[in-house]
């Protein structure tokens, strides 16, 4: 008898917890949205695929034919210093220069409040990189296309950033093409460590405050400067490194792309 | 009150029964041989079902997985050859292109945690993407395959049977292939029957070979799976193409020229041998270990023979012949001929 009372208590407390959870969803806590826009640029010019020519710090001229990168694991800092971590499942985006719709997205169900900065990863964290295929849908689908694939099948892992283009600095025997496919999440390999090109970027809103309420959705405009992939802690020379993929040098490029995103302004929607 | 208790007790009992009946069914689809350790594949993420396995088998033997619909998984993984490509040093893929390495045997995959000669893939579910997308193997993309499958009348039906709805997704496609491959368990060779005291007889040479394998080879090929799933440099002479093995995955110099230790099960039918298929007979393979090439990453077990202190493994010609005789007892005919793994199951 005592056991059955215990069971009943257990069931009723579970039921209670369930209903409480429902109530929260119904909206005692005010929530809202933030829209983020990643505008790809090259220095002070708009990035245009194929047509425009840019110059890196070494003085090499180049054009860009492809520029893709993952941003994930978003966190937002409030003006009081506390942080809101966006649930991981809603926190993976692939920015593709040839797909304008990929460059703007909205983080939903944010607690209302005043936010002063955003931080995120360039790349896909190790946990998700090792997760069951069932948890890799949408932009994380490893099977996405062959030409635009952001995934290495032979060395299981995502390509975090893909930058391709042409430059006269590359011999014509190689069709003047350069390739930077940067990935490597630190290794799930029997506990062995491999290169880790995940980089965290924190972007303060420069003194601006993004106020999220049920009725007001701030839009944060960010710029991603492709020149920073070349010009950073290390100056990348296309002539010296026309193709960098899964190799140790890729970590220097990752250190460069850790600096590529900046805050521009915010607009109200 | 009494009624409530009855309802509670009944529902708990039903749950327990459902749990045991599903566990029982799984045991029928995938039996862990009594002398094997526990498998490492996470079955809870991909529970085997009869329909799932059948879908996987159909996909495994369907050439539409390749760009020009000519190559199936079974083209390079032939059952009679222990799921390797019979006689090919480097397997032949689409347009008769030559691949980079020897096709690995597909057997006892539920016990393996890293796949391929260099171990670059950590999940069996993800492995089929490698040959599918490799330009010299199947040269196809997953989205294309899914489109082709949706257009074939049989597949929406097979996917519904396996997963409850006709949706054809990456996850379902890959998990069905895993389900089929996981069932390829080989544990019924003459060696296995001897271990289980099921009346298998061994010649004196085979018996001597068994003792030698335990003494000299078990550091890398321990029973009963005959691999420790590690990656090692086994002292092969360097070649022109200089395949760096596991180094390509870890970029760690210590891993140069390391390759997966393959199982010895069914080894008599999986010729040629090594990652590049350089040896055509078992005799050559065993002789190799008596004269390995020294290199920085040579496995420590091959640097000094435990008994003689000489580089490699010290073996007399008779001992080598005995080892080969024992290796032939690892051939599992019931596995090689099991109609559950065959292209045409019903025949």
From TrEMBL, chain A:
Keywords: Signal. It holds the Pfam family MbnP. Residues 1-23 form the signal peptide. InterPro entries: MbnP-like_dom. Residues 32-245 form the Copper-binding protein MbnP-like domain. It comes from the Bacteria. This is Copper-binding protein MbnP-like domain-containing protein. It comes from Spirosoma profusum.
From TrEMBL, chain B:
Heme c 2 binds at residues 217, 220-221. Keywords: Heme, Iron, Metal-binding, Oxidoreductase, Periplasm, Peroxidase, Signal. Binds 2 heme groups. Residues 204-331 form the Cytochrome c domain. Residues 1-25 form the signal peptide. Heme c 1 binds at residues 73, 76-77. GO terms for cellular component: periplasmic space. GO terms for molecular function: cytochrome-c peroxidase activity; electron transfer activity; heme binding; metal ion binding. It comes from the Bacteria. It is found in: Periplasm. It holds the Pfam family CCP_MauG. Its main location: periplasm. Binds 2 heme groups per subunit. Its cofactor is heme. This is Cytochrome-c peroxidase. It comes from Spirosoma profusum.
């Amino acid at each position: 008898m005592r056991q059955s009372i215990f069971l009943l208590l257990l069931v009723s407390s579970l039921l209670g917890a369930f209903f409480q959870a429902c109530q929260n969803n119904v909206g005692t806590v005010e929530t809202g949205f933030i829209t983020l826009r990643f505008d790809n640029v090259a220095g002070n010019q708009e990035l245009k695929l194929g047509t425009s020519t840019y110059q890196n710090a070494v003085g090499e001229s180049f054009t860009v034919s492809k520029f893709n990168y993952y941003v994930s694991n978003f966190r937002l800092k409030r003006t009081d210093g506390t942080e809101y971590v966006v649930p991981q499942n809603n926190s993976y985006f692939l920015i593709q220069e040839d797909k304008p719709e990929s460059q703007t997205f909205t983080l939903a169900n944010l607690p209302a409040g005043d936010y002063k900065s955003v931080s995120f990863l360039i790349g896909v964290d190790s946990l998700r990189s090792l997760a069951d295929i069932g948890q890799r849908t949408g932009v994380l689908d490893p099977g996405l296309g062959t030409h635009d694939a952001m995934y290495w099948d032979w060395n299981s892992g995502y390509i975090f950033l893909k930058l391709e283009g042409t430059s006269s600095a590359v011999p014509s025997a190689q069709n003047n093409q350069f390739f930077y496919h940067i990935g490597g999440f630190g290794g799930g390999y029997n506990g062995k460590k491999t290169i880790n090109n995940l980089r965290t970027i924190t972007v303060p809103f420069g003194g601006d405050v993004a106020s999220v309420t049920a009725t007001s959705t701030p839009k944060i405009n960010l710029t991603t400067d492709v020149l920073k992939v070349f010009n950073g802690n290390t100056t990348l020379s296309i002539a010296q490194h026309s193709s960098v993929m899964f190799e140790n040098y890729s970590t220097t490029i990752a250190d460069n792309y850790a600096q590529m995103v900046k805050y521009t302004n915010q607009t109200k929607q | 009150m009494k009624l409530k208790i009855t309802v509670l007790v009944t529902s708990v009992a039903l749950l327990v029964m459902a749990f045991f009946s599903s566990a029982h069914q799984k045991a029928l689809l995938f039996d862990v041989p009594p002398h094997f350790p526990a498998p490492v594949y996470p079955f809870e993420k991909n529970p085997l079902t009869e329909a799932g396995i059948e879908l996987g088998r159909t996909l495994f033997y369907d050439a539409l997985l390749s760009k020009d619909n000519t190559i199936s998984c079974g083209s390079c993984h032939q059952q009679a050859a222990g799921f390797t490509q019979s006689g090919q040093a480097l397997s032949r893929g689409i347009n008769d292109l030559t691949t980079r390495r020897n096709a690995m045997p597909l057997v006892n995959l539920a016990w393996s945690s890293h796949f391929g000669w260099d171990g670059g893939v950590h999940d069996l579910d993800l492995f089929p993407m490698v040959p599918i997308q490799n330009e010299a193997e199947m040269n196809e993309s997953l989205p294309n395959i899914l489109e082709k499958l949706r257009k074939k009348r049989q597949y929406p039906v097979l996917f519904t049977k396996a997963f409850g709805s006709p949706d054809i997704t990456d996850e379902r496609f890959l998990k069905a292939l895993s389900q089929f491959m996981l069932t390829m368990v080989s544990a019924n060779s003459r060696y296995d029957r001897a271990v289980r005291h099921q009346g298998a007889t061994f010649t004196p040479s085979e018996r001597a070979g068994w003792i030698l394998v335990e003494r000299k080879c078990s550091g890398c090929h321990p029973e009963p799976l005959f691999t420790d799933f590690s990656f090692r440099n086994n002292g092969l002479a360097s070649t022109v193409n200089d395949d760096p093995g596991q180094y390509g995955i870890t970029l760690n110099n210590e891993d140069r020229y390391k390759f997966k230790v393959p199982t010895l099960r069914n080894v008599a039918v999986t010729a040629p041998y090594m990652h590049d298929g350089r040896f055509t007979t078992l005799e050559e393979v065993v002789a190799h270990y008596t004269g390995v090439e020294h290199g920085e990453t040579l496995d420590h077990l091959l640097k000094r023979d435990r008994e003689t202190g000489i580089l490699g493994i010290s073996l007399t010609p008779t001992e080598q012949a005995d080892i080969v005789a024992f290796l032939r007892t690892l051939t599992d005919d019931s596995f090689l001929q099991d109609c559950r793994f065959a292209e045409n199951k019903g025949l």
